[in-house]
Design brief:
11 strands, elongated, four-stranded antiparallel sheet, seven-stranded mixed sheet, mainly beta
């Protein structure tokens, strides 16, 4: 099994910044894509950004130019630097990892429990 633990959420004023981190632990053989999703109150969960093991990134249009995803493969950790935060960014942010564990034939997507980001004055 793979466990994902997010950190870095909190309350921030509009225009402010936050940095989320997510560490993957467990009997990990390899991790492919890692990413961040978010779910705002009353809305569907949506992809924010993801990054492959090779460093290729993909962003939702609403966060391009404001958010930056990165990862440390040696630490099995993914980060999300969020700048220029807006009230519309208020959501629970979930970390994901497409990973294969020791002895597993096929990989699967693992999810963290989420961290709340609130943007408000």
């Amino acid at each position: 099994q793979v466990q994902l633990v997010e950190s870095g959420g909190g309350l921030v004023q509009p225009g402010g910044s936050l940095r989320l981190a997510c560490a993957a632990t467990g009997s990990i053989f390899s991790i492919y894509t890692m990413g961040w999703y978010r779910q705002a109150p009353g809305k569907e969960r949506e992809l924010v950004a993801d990054i492959t093991s090779g460093g290729n990134t993909n962003y939702a249009g609403s966060v391009k130019g404001r958010f930056t995803i990165s990862r440390d493969n040696a630490k099995n950790t993914v980060y999300l630097q969020m700048n220029g935060l807006k009230p519309d960014d208020t959501a629970i942010f979930y970390c994901t990892a497409d990973a294969k564990t020791m002895g597993q034939l096929y990989g699967m997507r693992y999810w963290g429990k989420g961290t709340l980001v609130t943007v408000s004055s």
